# Entry
Amino acid sequence: MKLTWFNAVRTVLKEAERPMHYEEITAEVKKKYREEGNWGSTPERTVSYVLTTSKNKGDGKLIFKKETKPGFYSLKSDESNLDNVSAVADEEVADSSLNMQLAKQNAYEQVNGSISIVKSYGVFWKRSEVDWNLTSVNLSGKRRKDWSKGESVDFRQQIGIYILYDHRDVVYVGQTKKSLGNRLKAHCEDRHMGRWNRFSWFGLKPVSDDGTLLGFHLNPDLKEKHLTNALEGILIEVLQAGGNRRAGDGFSAIEFIQCE
# Structure
């Protein structure tokens, strides 16, 4: 059997014989096929897409059953015509087009149970670790969750908001609609040039499976609560509020650690 995300997810659930959380499914796939797969930088997103879109070609019904507990899925007992489904799913998952990547992002948010306008962020990155003399500065980071094995992502073209610090003290808050890298580089030459040594950023562009930035896309299901969740999460991260144990219950953005 050809190794694809669909076949891998199906095998893991079939062998487990129980509902599994999508993150556990992803971890088991990577463990079981560690010598065969190219997982990219956001494997959970691809697993989410497979779980929410794979259909039986015969009757059009979904192959995987969504359990009542958020994020948990199981394999339906009826497995007829799955060979046909795997061929269709393989072709779709392999598609790297913008529409497909955005579909994976929406699927991930659906499975994760939390839509967020902020897709990725980095906290207290060091100014000294960036070569600002380059024409195009490199703002590379790796997911905190997969720091040892994950792929690096360059966030110089990210958009969103950023904060400049003098150690832990906030010096300046700004926004960028075009390039985070260029905006930060400008602050190395303006009136703030000698006032900051660290920065945080909160980006609106999601990261694709191959570790590149996608275009900005507003999820059509975004509601008021998702905006307030994002604001709360950003404030907790920026202020490092001691009474908060985590970055807000509804803040699902992916944290990236600076590559040194």
